[in-house]
Amino acid sequence: MTDLATAGGALRRRPKQRAGLAGALPVFFIGLFFIYVLAFLAGPALSILFQAFRSSSGDFTTQYVDQLFGRFYAKAYVTTAALSAVTALIGVVAGLLTAYQIQRQSTPGWLRNAVNSFSGVAANFAGIPLAFAFISTLGTQGMLTLWLKALGIDIYGAGFSLFSFWGLVLTYLYFQIPLMVIIITPALQGMRREWREAAMGLGGNGWHYWRHVGIPILTPSVLASFILLFGNAFASYATPYALTSGLVPLVPIEIGNLMSGNVIADPQLGNALSLGMIVVMGAAMTLYTLLQRWTGRWQKR
């Protein structure tokens, strides 16, 4: 009887031990995640904050932050913000229309799967490979450029240049539009068919449905997507650097020049530029979070 009681107690303890182990694993991985965030996000951000207000001798100074409002670096921020806003706006409109079209019931399943698969790949295809692909296609000796020239269309003679502001806009759209398709698809899938049927049953038409139901519901998601695309473009470095080599003044490129340049190296000023970039990205992410909460309230209704 004693052996049976001991065995029974061991069997009762075993599920508790397994439950304790299963509960400890999530805590362990969450702890690793926070350590990762502190080491590679919070730590560098705090270091940039302190270094931006610190002179080469270690004294407190605002001279580097004051330079951000000078003509040259202010222009870099304006150009970067303009590039991000233009590509985000075009990406939102084109991506929304594309996602809406492929989510319609009349769209073939193979086309929907193809667009979704391409979007997943293209949204992450950036950097030097993307720049090389566009140079090979639309550069001065690119394949498409030469084909058009053979047809009598000289796009560079007409004023187009891949290595300019609008060339960067065209390049950024390659990953901005697919990213918008990925982001907005869940919101479109959350649109219930009963809402349209109710609008039609009350005597409305398609315009009334979109005016009073569809657009108000999608607006928070669309605005949040715009902010996310804006931040995605604002932080891009490798693609514009490979295309323009600094000819277009952008904040990430100027930071790279100051932090690692052999001629104009100035780490303190680079930290100040990075601090300004953190402020812009922080504001964008704050707005994105607020809009996501607004979207969540709509989806719960």
TrEMBL record:
Pfam families in alphabetical order: BPD_transp_1
Chain ranges of the ABC transmembrane type-1 domain: 77-290
Localization annotation: Cell membrane
GO biological process, one term: transmembrane transport
GO cellular component: plasma membrane
Keyword annotations of the record: Cell membrane, Membrane, Transmembrane, Transmembrane helix, Transport
Membrane spanning stretches: 21-50, 76-102, 114-135, 155-188, 209-231, 272-291
Membrane topology listed for this record: Multi-pass membrane protein
Major place of residence: membrane
UniProt keyword Transmembrane helix present: yes
InterPro entries reported in the protein's UniProt record: MetI-like (IPR000515), MetI-like_sf (IPR035906)
Family to which this protein belongs: Belongs to the binding-protein-dependent transport system permease family. CysTW subfamily.
This protein's name: Acriflavin resistance protein
Organism: Allgaiera indica
